[in-house]
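Researcher: Re-running this chain for the archive, since the previous output was lost when a drive failed. Same request as before.
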Amino acid sequence: MLARHMWRSAVLLALFAVTGTALVASIYKGTKEPIAEAERAYMLRSLHAVIKPDLYNNDIFTDFIEVKSPELLGTKKAMQVFRARKDNKPVAAAITSIAPEGYVGPIKLLVGIDINGVILGVRVLEQKETPGLGDAIDEKRSNWIYGFNGRSLTNPEPDKWHVRKDGGIFDQFTGATITPRAVVKAVHNTLLFFNKNKQQLFSQKSVDQTTVNQTKKK
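Model: Regenerated structure tokens:
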């Protein structure tokens, strides 16, 4: 009697497990494509924000490479560099980088830089900074991030690439200096990376988006 009861319980548990697995698989299949499309649309909006579409005529979303530079890009992980070209001539790059020293955690950035090393725009892709304080780096919260537009390695001078509290030209936030300090440093490092590697960035063969997507699924 006990053995029969245990057998029935085991069968029921197995059925629940199979049903649950099938349900999860079905939900994943149904949401996978919409999520991927939403992520693509978000990245395209961000790319267009840091490099205006009228500056190039290639497919910037697929013309990209992956690079590693822990010292200048803030992470050991491969980061993406999207290349903008006009009639096959390089005009700008949008580089993803990390500000590892955010107050709450790492801050992911997208920095648009023209071929002459001048910043076209900066956007925050991911951040978890304190609402009402550090999150002012997001353009939805303030226009602080626009302060990088037109800047370069010589504008301002290297010793002025800091927040005002540290002797630089960039504003900090009331009650929150760590976050803007981290972003200023990361943007400056991204400029240094571009200046150091500009020729190689535009000469490397593009990464296949299909390969990247398949890798992410594993």
